[in-house]
Amino acid sequence: MAQDNENTLADGELICLKVMNSIDQRYATGPTMGKWFAGLKERKFLANKCPQCGRTQIPPREACAICRVRVREFVELGPKGTITAWDIVYYASPDPLTGAVREAPYAVLYIMLDGATEQEAFAMEMKKDDIGRIKMGSRVRPVWAETTTGSYKDVLYFELDD
Amino acid sequence: MSRNKKNRNTAIIGVGQTVYSSHREDQNQVEMAHEAVRNALTDANLAIGAVDCIVHGNMELFEMQFQPDLWHSLGIGALGKDVYRITTGGTTGSTLVCAADNLVASGMYDMVLAVGLQKLQEGNTTGGITNMADPLWFRNLQSGALSGTAAQSMISEFGEERARKAAMRYRIMMDRHAMLNPRAHRRFGLKYEQMEELMESSPQLVGELRLIHMCSQSDGACAILFAAEDVAKEISAKPVWIRDHVEVHREETFSNIFGFVQPETTHRYAARKLFQRNGIENPVDYFDVFEMYDPSAWWGAGWLREFLLLDGDEHLRLLEAGEFDLDGRLPVNPSGGVIATNPIGATAMLRVAEAALQIRGEAGAHQVPKEVRHALASGFGGTYWTALLMLEKDINW
């Protein structure tokens, strides 16, 4: 330890390096999430429905973790829904997919799409102009990209359904 | 699902911590780990040769260094020993303790050293945490560990005034405790009279979650030495016993806790399961101290209800009456908690380390001013995971 004797590096220079990394990534959807993205391309929210408990999993998963059974049936939810919770983010967080600093504020909504079972909320960004008017229980509708490709970018955001 | 009783009891026989700070630039990661390990060994009056197995805990994504267990091996004394690495987000520190407990209780090793460490200033924690969701779906919406939903639900349940005051009271209570702990990272000297002022002046991060409510980003390490019952009784003057622990995970999504109906929290589920199998009927009266993983004042204030199996506003009434203060009925986080000190790979381990020091009566200025026989410690991380541990002064359960 540093205080042991005089020949330590206690008086040495401390160096700090700053580095910015950029990493390419591939990520397989698997068939169940593949169906979800195919649905987005058609401007549809496709959940899958557990044959045992009946809950609508969104985004869909291969099996129901509670019943431990395979889930094969797909059902279309929404497209409109009801706000149950939200986060208005004021601090300038990094966009995890690009590393760019996000424009704040932005809002993430938790939405119960029409037809979803009672616990299965869904998360999506809110239209910036509507952030000041978010309320519990407000009705919202999706705004789709002009061209859909089967990606998270197909839904631009949700807006108030006034 | 069956669960067998322990093959033999596990004791904590040594605790070592570093000083925590936002920038430990006076030492590198290896040296920082070594500081905690050295302190734990000194505390137990042992040398590294006595240790059979080492469990290493760190979130490599946060410092962006792959294989930290390899690069830290000199600091943790791993050369020639069995080493395991644990990396479970916020729960890393408590998972380290649960793993060490299992490794000793199983009979595999007589003495295990667990080391948790993090240097959050060397990477980008929020950048790391936002990488947790599926990159094809939901990662784009990630804002890291920050969320305003806890504030929102407490406000909608108890009204804006009471909820905001409760969160700020909790925050100031943590700072008052941290002021008594010389190792704690953030120590502001806040007073209860400042509640109203802080509620308005602190900048908003997400919704009503303000900068003052949120936990710190710290550098630091913690090490704990575990021994089997017969060994501990022979070499330790004040062994602290790990009575039981539980670890709870949930599904790989978190939007489904925000539906019309909300599922039981993992905290309440963990507490219910742990207390039931140990015959604890009233946790508020049974435990003498609770070191809780509290990532923000809103979560801390709200989670007391879950962990202590309370209903309605019981937790707020206890908080408002000062019953969670250092001299209250059930002191919560005498150390200052996660809000004061948060070196992630070590954070949940500090809860156990501090709870053990309280049982030994050796916590220092933040020692609970009554005898501590039973302690509760929690860990939290990921998409709402919970670890919960019970520590005892005596083997009499």
Quick take:
Chain A has about 160 residues and is mainly beta. In chain A, about 5% of the residues lie in helices and about 30% in strands.
Can you give a write-up of this model?
Chain A has one domain. With 162 residues, chain A is mainly beta. Chain A has a five-stranded antiparallel sheet, with no helix packed on it. A three-stranded antiparallel sheet of chain A has the order 2-1-5. A two-stranded antiparallel ribbon of chain A has the order 3-4. Chain A has one helix at residues 30-41, and strands at 45-49, 56-57, 63-64, 69-70, 73-77, 81-89, 106-113, 122-125, 139-144, 155-160. In chain A, a hairpin with an 8-residue loop joins strand 7 (106-113) and strand 8. Chain A is built from one helix and ten strands, in the order αββββββββββ. By secondary structure, chain B is α/β, with parallel strands linked by helices. Chain B has a domain at 10-126 and 217-228: Peroxisomal Thiolase, Chain A, domain 1 (3-Layer(aba) Sandwich), CATH 3.40.47.10. Chain B has 16 helices and eleven strands. Chain B has helices spanning 29-44, 60-63, 68-71, 73-76, 92-105, 125-129, 149-158, 160-178, 195-201, 229-235, 266-278, 283-286, 297-307, 314-320, 337-340, 344-360; strands at residues 10-17, 53-57, 82-86, 111-119, 204-206, 209-210, 219-228, 240-248, 289-291, 374-381, 385-392. Chain B is globular and about 55 Å long. Chain B starts with 9 loop residues before the first strand and ends in a 5-residue tail after the last strand. The mean pLDDT of chain B is 94.
